[in-house]
Design goal:
The chain has 5 helices and 6 strands, in the order E-H-E-E-E-H-H-E-E-H-H. By secondary structure, it is of the alpha+beta class. Strands 1, 2, 3, 4, 5 and 6 form a 6-stranded antiparallel β-sheet that branches. Strand 5 and strand 6 form a beta hairpin.
Amino acid sequence: MPQPNILIIGMGSNHNAAANLEMARQELKKRYPQTVFSNVRDTEPVGFKRNTALFTNQLALLKTEDDIPAVRSFLKSLEQLAQRTAADKANEIVRLDLDILQANETIIKKEELQRSYYQDALSELPRF
């Protein structure tokens, strides 16, 4: 039997954040019951010029037999469920952003994972 994948997922929203992140948490727990979450944090937007709304960010730690492309596809389906659109990007609206930051021992999005709010959140997650 193959080893399960251990993934750290970055979660963020700057539009209807409480509802969008709650939906994502519920759906992640349904599909991956062992998922645990850090506390949520309100943070300043990074790289935005017009929309200065705070982001709400959180990490999820999940363990799965699914391969990385399957998890990524599931995360994209959740973003679509939150009605994320290409037009939103131009207006710097992020209804829901779910990114695999680390898969097993491989860091995928180093710059994001190194942000102070995610570093703080990492300390809240258990180790599988």
